[in-house]
């Protein structure tokens, strides 16, 4: 096993995680690897999780190593304050030395203490037009995280962000291919039904889309539905 206290050992473990993340796996699996590795590499981290925040306050609490991060995420979204939300939406790194003396989040901090959580580290991992996120680490001891932990967490957050970006890209690709397939089917139906060529069939679809202010993919689906009805 690599010596995780040495730069070489740490780099070796990060390389292993990168290779695992490159394999065909779900986002949840990759994020679970990230949070498990965070606990492995940071002795002060008693639990870890990922929070994704969307527009309108919609959020997902993912890949937690225990039930506690889910509880803490719920509290932050209820109170609309806390380090995970702050890291996801604003700051890049938010470190809390001792929640008993924390004044930034007057509702959230006492709730953490009640749950036995005394310190934390949150690192931004992903931002987009509709989604923000953070990798979150918590400890039952005060002053559990240092500058080295911030560096490790930042690298791990990059792995998590890459997994999410790859997932979004994959979803967009599948959606684009599905749309192209539907438009192709619709063109074929119009060509057969009206005796027109490929270009004219597409122009007919586009005209209906513009006149009705309807997405082209939806127009294509309606044409397909008329054949199947």
From TrEMBL:
The keyword Cytoplasm does not apply. Keywords: Kinase, Transcription, Transcription regulation, Transferase. Residues 163-224 form the ANTAR domain. GO terms for molecular function: kinase activity; RNA binding. It comes from the Bacteria. This is Histidine kinase. It comes from Mycolicibacterium holsaticum.
